[in-house]
Amino acid sequence: MPHRILVPTDFSPSAEAALAHAGALADRFGAPLHLLHVVHQTNTDLYGLGTAEAHTDRLREEAEASARAQLAELAPKRAAQEVHTAVAQDPDGSVRQRPGAH
User: Fold this and answer.
1) pLDDT (tens digit, 9 = 90+) per residue, 13-27?
2) Is residue 78 within 8 Å of residue 33, measured between CB atoms?
3) Using CA of residue 67, residue 40, residue 18, residue 30, what is the dihedral sign?
4) Which residues fall within 8 angstroms of residue 29, CB to CB, at 6 or more apart?
5) Which residues, including other chains, have CB under 8 Å from residue 94's CB and lie 6 or more apart?
6) How many CB atoms lie within 10 A of CB 99?
7) How crowded is residue 26: how many other Cβ atoms within 10 Å of its Cβ?
8) What does DSSP assign to residue 24?
9) Are strands 83-90 and 5-8 parallel, antiparallel or unpaired?
10) pTM score > 0.90 for this model?
11) Distance between CA atoms of 45 and 53, rounded to whole angstroms?
């Protein structure tokens, strides 16, 4: 029996379908849902744009704020369960790597 269910999301239709399935599991087992969105960091040095760092910081902050707002909209739809939300950064790109690529 799961004690908590992690649902990573990119806010796509596939992620919405996964959330619906996870919600059904949470209902069945009385487990809280943890919704997660990962904001990927752009390395401006790769493109010779080192001076653009301040702009990318602002864009990352905006992306995180937008993701938090979207997660907050998803959470009330799952009112039958306890719902936690989080936005995380992926500074080294490890989250984007395919399974088994390590």
Assistant:
1) 999 999 999 988 988
2) yes
3) negative
4) 1, 2
5) none
6) 5
7) 23
8) H
9) unpaired
10) no
11) 9
